[in-house]
Design brief:
Catalytic activity: (S)-malate + NAD(+) = oxaloacetate + NADH + H(+)
CATH superfamily of the largest domain: Lactate dehydrogenase/glycoside hydrolase, family 4, C-terminal
Distance between the termini: 45 Å
Pfam families: Ldh_1_C, Ldh_1_N
Function: Catalyzes the reversible oxidation of malate to oxaloacetate.
Keywords: NAD, Oxidoreductase, Tricarboxylic acid cycle
Number of domains: 2
Bound molecules: 1,4-dihydronicotinamide adenine dinucleotide
Helix content: 40-55%
CATH topology of the largest domain: L-2-Hydroxyisocaproate Dehydrogenase, Chain A, domain 2
EC number: 1.1.1.37
Structural class: alpha/beta
């Protein structure tokens, strides 16, 4: 039998977890021939552990052929034991009146503990994807505390933003979303994120040329992608979960399968200084994967002065977030 992949998921009984776990167990993330063990972490409180048990009962009831085993725990050291992938979805939500800085500092200790647990207990080939917000800086904290794990094994998710940008451009151009290729997000997964409309193509031509409406591209398009999460909360009364889970499936597949020639995907990875994003910050870039665990940041894309200015602002926000949590990083 193929050795199962061990996948740790934090916040497993939350909204995204509920939409994500059946899809992983169904083979959507690692393929139809790859068995999985789901190692699910929830808070050590009765309500969360009860909910987790309920989720596990439902997974049992799906009788997924690829689901080899499940681990239910409130201990990160158990959840991450021998894990090949750690999907860090759970985080402390923003409460009423809470500033972004407060949120960063509240989440810091969670991602410190989880980074250490990844370091000490995960498999030697572990890779970590952070979804829990503020995901870039949470990933930065976990990465810094996982001292023995190479930095490039850490990523954070802007694939949902990429998918949103792709859908918006397709709708505006009146084409199916598959006609839009290389949709791309730069910078932070926040309201400063930068959806690229120049290097993205529609039926093979720059989206900027096909749409030919600069005011829409720099105005409504930008705002719709940046504010889509808030629009979904307003409409649904809850934040995006199915689309976030689906994007995480895409994110992991993007990093584990070879990217087709001429293509890229948006992944938040540690900056090597590319595109003037300060080295070490976890920022969204165009990324190509080799399918063997390696990836590269695509070089040489041209940005318009407008996009450059927006990326510089988003990178400055990331640097500011790093400064806000400086006391929580190892010295
Ligand atoms: P949710 O509140 O429904 O679920 C979060 C779960 O995490 C809860 O069950 C909670 O008990 C658990 N949790 C909290 N702290 C934990 C810890 N220290 N260890 C283990 N479990 C913990 O939230 P939802 O909708 O599932 O979203 C999860 C996160 O994903 C949020 O931070 C959200 O902002 C973020 N998100 C990120 C997106 C992205 O594109 N990067 C898109 C959508 C959501």
């Amino acid at each position: 039998m193929v050795t199962p992949i061990r996948v740790a998921i934090t916040g497993a009984a939350g909204q995204i977890g509920y939409a994500l776990l059946p899809r992983i167990a169904n083979g959507d993330m690692f393929g139809p021939d790859q068995p999985v063990v789901l190692q699910m972490l929830e808070l050590p409180i009765d309500a969360a552990q009860d909910a987790l048990r309920g989720v596990a009962m439902e997974l049992d009831d799906c009788a997924f052929p690829l689901l080899h085993d499940m681990v239910l725990t409130s201990d990160p050291n158990v959840a991450f034991k021998d894990a090949n992938w750690c999907l860090l979805v759970g985080s402390k939500p923003r409460g009423p009146g809470m500033e972004r800085g407060d949120l960063l500092r509240e989440n810091g200790p969670i991602f410190e503990a989880q980074g250490k647990a990844v370091n000490d207990h995960a498999a030697s080939d572990v890779r970590v994807a952070v979804v829990g917000n503020p995901c870039n800086t949470n990933a930065l904290i976990a990465m810094n505390w996982a001292k023995d794990v190479p930095n490039e094994r850490f990523s954070a998710m802007t694939r949902l933003d990429q998918n949103r940008a792709q859908a918006q451009l397709a709708a505006k151009a009146g084409v199916h979303s598959t006609a839009v290729k290389n949709a791309l997000i730069w910078g932070n997964h926040s309201a400063t994120q930068v959806p690229d409309f120049v290097n993205c193509t529609i039926d093979g031509r720059s989206a900027a040329d096909v749409i030919g409406d600069e005011a829409w591209l720099t105005g409504e398009f930008f705002q719709t992608v940046q504010q889509r999460g808030a629009a979904i909360i307003k409409a649904r009364g809850k934040s995006s979960a199915a689309s976030a889970a689906s994007a995480l499936i895409d994110h992991v597949r993007d990093l584990t399968t070879p990217t087709p020639n001429g293509r890229w995907n948006s992944v938040c990875v540690p900056s090597d200084g590319s595109y003037d994003v300060p080295e070490g910050l976890i920022s969204s870039f165009p990324v190509r994967a080799d399918g063997k665990g390696g990836y590269e940041i695509v070089q040489g894309l041209e940005l318009t002065p407008f996009l450059k200015e927006k990326l510089a602002a988003s990178a400055a926000e990331l640097a500011h977030e790093r400064d806000e949590v400086k006391a929580l990083l190892p010295s």
